[in-house]
Each structure stands twice: as structure tokens, then as C-alpha cells.
């Protein structure tokens, strides 16, 4: 890449900055509240962080955005890296993982592949979790770690 930061100006006054690293992305979305409200991975924009936990969001909108509500015209291919597998195996509490798998299997369509279920379980275990970023950097390349510490 020539730059790690990608800036996007989207419709409805939405600005997105994506920071690309070797094995993960950091993203910042800036926008105004939409008329009629909104809800999604970042919360519901009501000013109350208590109802913006991963569990609360999944309870309101499910594990994945419905096709009719997607911002983009197609879904990205889901991947589940060996680093994510290791994080899930070593850092997600067993009870949380079991509950997450049950919830994901309930929320995802019957046709969901193992890869989709694993990605959903990972989101439940580490979503909105500051620990996830620290863990991700554990698995980042030496170059990414050096770039992160110098920036």
C-alpha cells in the first residue's frame, strides 16, 4: 500500500477512515444522526453507551446485517485467519464461546457455513472489546508493530 489510511466520503454526510494493518483494520466513522434513527455495529446513536454493547446490538439487529439494509451492493468474502482461530481458542472464555455459538447459529440462516459461524462467534467474543485490539497487535507483523508505535 502507498498509505495505511483510506478516507471515504459517503452519501448522507458519512465520512469513513480505514487504517489498514497486516492482519486487521481499524475504522472510524463520522456522521450525523439520520432522520428516523439508525442502528448497527457501532450502536444506535441515542447517546446511551449502555445499549451499545455487542450483546445489546446483536439482540436488537441480529448477528449480520440483512441484505436490504446493507450500505454496499454485495457482501465481502468472510475469512477466518489462523490468528483469529488462536485468539478464539486461547482468549475467549469457554462459556462465552458456547453461548456465542448458540446465539450465532440461532441468528444466522440454516445455510450458514462453519466459516460464517466462526466469524460470528469471534465478533461476540471480541466485539467492542479493547482487549481485542491489544490481542490483534500481538499477532501483527513486526513491521506493523513498528509502524503502530511510531505513529
Description:
The protein has 151 residues and is an alpha+beta fold. Helix content is 42%, strand content 13%. The chain is built from six helices and three strands, in the order E-E-E-H-H-H-H-H-H. It has a three-stranded antiparallel β-sheet, with no helix packed on it. The mean pLDDT is 78.
Instruction: Give the strand line-up of the largest sheet.
Output: 1-2-3
Shape: globular
Distance between the termini: 16 Å
- Largest β sheet strand count, sense and barrel closure: 3 strands, antiparallel
Low-confidence spans: pLDDT under 50, at least 5 residues?
Answer: none
Helix content: 40-55%
Rg on CA atoms, Å = 16 Å
Determine the strand fraction and express it as a percent band.
5-15%
Q: Mean pLDDT, nearest integer?
A: 78
Number of strands: 3
Q: Could you spell the SSE succession in H and E letters?
A: EEEHHHHHH
Structural class: alpha+beta
Number of helices: 6
Structure characteristics:
151 residues
Outline:
The chain has 151 residues and is α+β, with helices and mostly antiparallel strands.
What's the layout of helices and strands?
Elements: E1 5-10, E2 14-20, E3 25-30, H1 54-61, H2 82-91, H3 94-107, H4 114-126, H5 130-139, H6 142-150
Antiparallel strand pairs: 1-2, 2-3
Helix pairs in contact: 3-4
